[in-house]
Amino acid sequence: MTVKALQTLTTGRNGVGAFILQCKKMDIHYCDWAGSSKGMNGFIKSILPKFAAANPQIEFVVSPRPSKHPVVIGHYINGREKAICVRNLEPLQILKKVELLRDASGEKLRKVNKPVQSVNESVRGVWSPYHGNGMAV
Amino acid sequence: MKRLRPERWTGQLLAARPGAPPASAGALRPRCVASRPRQLCLSARRQQQQPAWENDNDSFDVLQDGTDHARYPPLERLPASVAGYPSPLPERALKSAKLAALHARLSLPAKIPLQTMARTLVDASADENPQFNNANLAFVGHSLITYHVAEWLMCRYPRLPMNILYSAVYAYAGDEALHQVARSWGVESAAAPGGEVDPGLLQFSLDKPVTSIIKFGYKRVEAAYLEKFKWRRGISSRVVFDDDFGGVVDKTPGVEHEEPEEHEEREDDGMDDAEEGLSPSYTSYGTDETRKLAEKVHANFARATVGAVYAHCGRETAKAFINAHIMSRTLDLSKLFAFKQPTRELALLCAREDFDHPVARLLSETGRMSRTPVFVVGIYSGMDKLGEGAGPSLDMARFKAAMNALKAWYLYSPGDNVRVPSDMLAQDAKPWEPAHIDMGEIISR
Lengths: 137, 445
Known about the structure:
The structure holds two protein chains of two kinds.
Chain A: E1 3-5, E2 23-30, H1 38-54, E3 59-64, E4 71-76, E5 81-85, H2 91-103
Parallel strand pairs in A: 2-3
Antiparallel strand pairs in A: 2-4, 4-5
Chain B: H1 6-15, H2 50-57, H3 97-105, H4 114-120, H5 135-156, H6 162-173, H7 175-184, H8 223-228, H9 235-241, H10 288-313, H11 315-327, E1 337-339, H12 342-352, E2 358-366, E3 374-381, E4 384-391, H13 394-410
Antiparallel strand pairs in B: 2-3, 3-4
């Protein structure tokens, strides 16, 4: 037997082929007594039904959290979660925060320096010192 | 230091006890009694709360605990009979928020009902009844996935040796890869299967694993000796007898796991590591065996989803789904080759194809007398350069050059967008142009 097969795995990239929204669940906590939840209560009443209908990929869980500030917690496919305290915010400001959570990937925030990141190897290849005509020193 | 609130302690204790007087009738904030957030939507929290509805069915009046139930409606009440079922009833699928979210996340067509999606999430180890578990759907899905992956690889790389092809199919459609696919869909698993579990959770039991048959293949007569005497299985016999990945078909179902696993995988909560009799490979994520089982369960869920797409939406949609989720993953096929005698194989190839005998020529070198020399060797057949390789010794460079030449031969591809036989099943397909068929491997085994 001259060729032996090695075992490897395929690697998937989200968006190549199919795109899966990374936010899978959102916990929305409110308090109907405290003033800091005033905007949140308005958000839940007026904006959330439309937002949830427009984003069926996300499971929304609305639950009271009495005498605490209102919080939105996003749960992501990679197992991480992101929580944003939305105390004293207006409903539309909360919508911005919720959209931020929806669009996040769940990864830790990191600085991106390169405009393109790719797992594919370079088309041009790596420069080799042993090829070509060489360089006159 | 955090302020203690004794009035809330009693509230917590009394709220859970049936028939007790209102916990905070005279408290300043009667609405703050609810110690745990009452969830308006369905969620997984409910799955461990079996006593709650049992109490509800008794004389327990839920209005007595001082909670304003108009404002905080109680959790969904389940009939006591659900605890008798091994998996959730199909009609509960319509109410599961998790399941609906999963359905939408995968962009599945509306033709696929939530009840079928719920069924794909029930493993055979959770519910042995094949009318309620996903074994049948997984069988269909497995056949479809391996068929589409194999035909595409064969048409796209017609010269792949058979064992490399098997390995490549496994890399796309094997348990590990499909486990990753299922994980990337964001499916969560229930702590333990049962009738009261949210239907949107993957349900399986590691305590009593069941080997459901999802692969096709023959059981070898000599199966018992293969392991014992390390008998060789020829490639031709693998094609005939073995499963889609060239592996031996599992032993009789049930025999494989004689000893049920003691430790189940628990992903969400802390583990009590102090249990006795732990195997050395035991971690907080279970043992190697339990992890393998969980991997298989996730893979079967992915297969069953494909089976469900096929059952409700037909062939073309299933093919598109496999294309989008499985075949779009990347695999570097050149990493699958491990050559033993590349120069001999290349010489035989050249003899077979009537090329000139391959000759290795030194193209360039540096630092021959140094500690780190580099030789660049090219392999030529007549005036044609077949391959080139660099290495720290002349022999190594020659071998690498031969390997590259062989890889260039084996990985020949007619193009990225090759037509596959299943394309002909589409309506008004163009006439079939024969695919390139290679004459076979250089050194047969």
